UniProtKB/TrEMBL annotation:
It comes from the Eukaryota. SUPFAM superfamilies: Ribonuclease H-like. It comes from Anabarilius grahami. This is BED-type domain-containing protein.
Length: 449
C-alpha cells in the first residue's frame, strides 16, 4: 500500500488531496479512495499530471459538501520523497560500443516507424556523434543501415524459429487492415513458456496484401506463414474477427475428421464427391488451416453496436427518440470535425474537444456520446444555437444518459479484453471509463530491449 507522500505528483500538491486516500501508484495513473463516500470502498483512477477525474467526482457526488482547501503548502513537502525526474538526462560521457549504438538507432527507427533516411539527417548524425564510443563513432548511411536491418531481421526470425521448435502448442491471431488504400495482413503468436509458465507473444508477419481479400487468398497467406515458422502441426487455434472472408477461409480449409461410427465399417453409406471440388486447384495446394476462434472483443463490439442499434430501431418506444438524438449528435460531430471555428467555439465554452465516432475504433460511438452528456444542457443549447443546429431536447439528453449507463459495462469489458496486460480488478472497484487508456494499438515489434 503506497503512502500519500510517496510521489510528488499533481495529486500530492492538490488543494483537495485531504479528501482522498492514495491506494496505489500504477505507471501513469493513481488509484485513490474517496473519504467522503459512505461506502468507503469506491476506487477512482486519475492521471499523475491531472486531477480532473477527482474534481468531477467531488462536483457530482458531493456537490452539497462545502469543500475546504488543504492548508498544507507545496513547499512543506519533503524533497527527498520526490520521484525520479520524468525526463531522463542524457549522459554523453558514458562509453558504449558501436554495436550498442547501431542497435539503439535501429530500435528507434523501427519502433517509431521513422524513414530509413533518418540516419542521414544532419541533426540526427550530429546527435549520434556526441555519444562517446570506444574507437570512435562510425555513422551508417541509408544503404548500410538497410542492410543492417535485414541482417537483424533474419537473426530475429531465426531465433524465433528456434524458440518454436521447443514448443508443442501455440496459438496465432490474424487480422487485415488498410492504411492509405494499402492492405496489410498481421499475424501474432502466443504461447506459454514451459520454464516460467508465463504467457509470451511475438509478431509473425506484417505483410502487404494485394488484390481482393477473398477467402482463398487469406487462407493461402495464413498457411504460408504457419509453414514458414514450422507451426502447421502445433497451432491449436487461430483467432480472427467475425469477417465473412475469414470465417469462410477456415470453413473451406478445415481438415476432414472421421467419426467414431465409421471405425467398425458397418452401416456405411455411399458418399458422393463433387468432381469440381476434386479438380479444384486450391485443394491440390494442400492448404490446411487450424481450428478457428472468433475474437471475443469483436463479438462484443458487434453486440454493442449492430445488435443494440437494430433493437433500438425495431422497438417503437425507442425508435423515434433514438433517431432524433443520434441525428442531432451526428450533426454536431460533423460540424465540429469540418469547421475549425466550430471546434474552437466548443473548446472555449466547455474546455473540451468533442470526440467524433470512428467506424474502425471500437467504443468510439459510446465515448463520443459520453463526452456530450458530460456537457451541461445550457452549454449544449448555447453551442447548438451558435452553430445554427437543432438543440438536443431534455428528453433526448436523458435518453443519451441512460444509453451510456447501460452500455458502460460492455465498454469496460472491451477495454479489459483489448488490454496488453490484464490484472483482476480489486474488490468493489469502480471503473472510470475516462481513465481507461486506449491500448488497442497492435504491437508488431519484437525488437529486443
Amino acid at each position: 500500500m503506497a503512502s500519500q507522500g510517496e510521489s510528488k505528483t499533481s495529486f500530492s500538491k492538490w488543494k483537495y488531496v485531504h479528501y482522498f486516500t492514495l491506494v496505489e501508484h500504477k505507471d501513469k495513473n493513481l488509484l485513490v479512495k474517496c473519504k467522503l463516500c459512505l461506502s468507503g470502498s469506491k476506487v477512482l483512477s486519475t492521471a499523475i499530471n491531472s486531477n480532473s477525474n477527482l474534481s468531477k467526482h467531488l462536483q457530482k457526488r458531493h456537490a452539497s459538501t462545502k469543500l475546504e482547501a488543504n492548508p498544507v503548502s507545496v513547499d512543506t513537502l519533503e524533497v527527498s520523497q520526490a520521484p525520479p525526474a520524468k525526463q531522463q538526462r542524457l549522459d554523453f560521457n558514458r562509453t558504449v560500443s558501436q554495436g550498442q549504438i547501431n542497435k539503439a538507432i535501429a530500435r528507434y527507427v523501427v519502433e517509431n516507424m521513422q524513414p530509413v533516411s533518418t540516419v542521414e539527417s544532419p541533426a540526427f548524425r550530429q546527435l549520434v556523434s556526441m555519444i562517446t564510443c570506444s574507437g570512435g563513432t562510425q555513422q551508417m548511411g541509408r544503404k548500410t543501415f538497410s542492410n543492417y536491418l535485414d541482417k537483424e531481421y533474419s537473426k530475429m526470425e531465426s531465433e524465433l524459429k528456434t524458440t518454436f521448435e521447443g514448443l508443442d502448442y501455440i496459438a496465432t491471431t490474424a487480422d487485415i487492415w488498410s492504411v492509405h488504400n494499402i492492405s496489410f495482413l498481421g499475424m501474432t503468436a502466443h504461447w506459454i513458456n514451459t520454464a516460467t509458465l508465463q504467457r509470451q507473444k511475438a509478431a509473425l508477419a506484417c505483410k502487404r496484401i494485394k488484390g481482393r481479400h477473398t477467402y482463398d487468398v487469406i487462407a493461402a497467406e495464413i498457411d504460408h506463414i504457419h509453414l514458414l515458422y514450422g507451426l502447421s502441426t502445433k497451432v491449436t487455434a487461430t483467432v480472427t474477427d467475425n469477417g465473412s472472408n475469414f470465417v469462410k477461409a477456415f470453413q473451406m480449409y478445415q481438415p476432414e475428421s472421421l467419426s467414431d461410427d465409421d471405425d467398425d465399417g458397418e452401416n456405411e453409406e455411399v458418399t458422393f464427391t463433387n468432381v469440381a471440388d476434386v479438380l479444384d486447384t486450391s485443394t491440390e495446394e494442400g492448404i490446411v488451416l487450424p481450428p478457428h476462434l472468433r475474437c471475443a472483443s469483436h463479438t462484443l463490439n458487434l453486440i454493442s453496436c449492430s445488435d443494440v442499434d437494430k433493437w433500438l430501431l425495431s422497438n417503437p418506444g425507442t425508435k423515434g427518440i433514438y433517431r432524433s438524438a443520434t441525428a442531432k449528435c451526428t450533426a454536431l460531430w460533423s460540424k465540429v470535425s469540418r469547421s475549425t471555428l466550430a471546434s474552437k467555439l466548443v473548446g472555449d465554452l466547455v474546455s473540451k474537444k468533442l470526440l467524433v465516432p470512428c467506424s474502425t475504433r471500437w467504443n468510439s460511438f459510446y465515448d463520443a456520446v459520453a463526452r456530450i452528456v458530460e456537457i451541461p444542457m445550457t452549454d449544449l443549447s448555447t453551442i447548438s444555437n451558435r452553430l445554427e443546429l437543432k438543440c438536443i431536447g431534455e428528453r433526448e439528453f436523458q435518453f443519451l444518459r441512460e444509453y451510456c449507463a447501460i452500455m458502460k459495462p460492455l465498454t469496460v469489458a472491451l477495454d479489459i479484453l483489448q488490454g496488453e496486460e490484464w490484472h483482476p480488478p480489486a474488490h468493489n472497484r469502480s471503473f472510470d471509463v475516462e481513465a481507461t487508456g486506449d491500448k488497442r494499438r497492435p504491437d508488431y515489434c519484437n525488437w529486443p530491449t
